[in-house]
Amino acid sequence: MALLTVLFSYGCTTSAQAQTSPAADIRSKPAKAAPTLWHNILKFNPPALLVQSVSVFYEHALTDRLSVVVGYNCAGKNYGFSRAIEKDGSGFRRGTIEVRRYGKGAGLQGFYLGSYLRLGKLRDGYYVYDPPSQHITGEWRTEENVVGVLGFMAGIQVIVLQRFTLDGFAGLQAQHVFGEVNSANEFVEVMTGGLNVRAGVTVGVAF
């Protein structure tokens, strides 16, 4: 009888060890590290340099899918767009505020939809003939106008090499000039046109 009791106790102990061993193995495996969720990105637009313009942006995550972007864009004497060489050239300075909503991605990455508002000053120099009918004498004049832009866009932002970002986007925007535009060069026409396309690529650093 004592022998049967010992064998029964040994069988129960062995069975319990066999049942708890797999669970112990699972608990012993290291947990997979979660991806880093960035909350801020500082970025700029390299293609804008081709048209003598500088664009910088800062993006901040409000939630895991909602973010706000603020930016600054400026350009100096942009003779390349003009029909004729102008004394003071053309230039602008403007600020941007944008709201984005991302899809299933998290940490400021993945597909997104956005809307934005841009507001700034457009400066241009032009020549006025006196009298207008005779292109002999005249004077240079400079004008400044406030230009507002409202637009919508879609894009995708990816994070590469752990913290560097690549953001491509395209959309439509409507521009409105507050004031009278007297200059007629091509650069001013582009900056004050009604409905046009906005597209670009930015690179940045997440932190």
Number of strands: 8
Distinct helical segment count: 2
Q: What's the main sheet like?
A: 8 strands, antiparallel, barrel
Spatial separation of the terminal alpha carbons: 72 Å
User: What value does the Rg take, in angstroms?
Assistant: 31 Å
Helicity, as a percent range: 10-25%
User: Which sequence of SSEs, written as H and E, runs from N to C?
Assistant: HEEEEEEEHE
Chain-averaged pLDDT: 78
| CATH architecture term | Beta Barrel
Strand content: over 45%
Shape: elongated
CATH class: Mainly Beta
Q: State the assembly state of the protein chains.
A: single chain
Q: In terms of structural class, how would the helical and strand content be classed? A: alpha+beta
CATH topology (level 3) name: Porin
Which parts are unreliable, with pLDDT below 50 for 5 consecutive residues or more?
2-8, 18-24, 78-86
How many domains comprise the coordinates? 1
Order of strands across the biggest sheet? 1-2-3-4-5-6-7-8
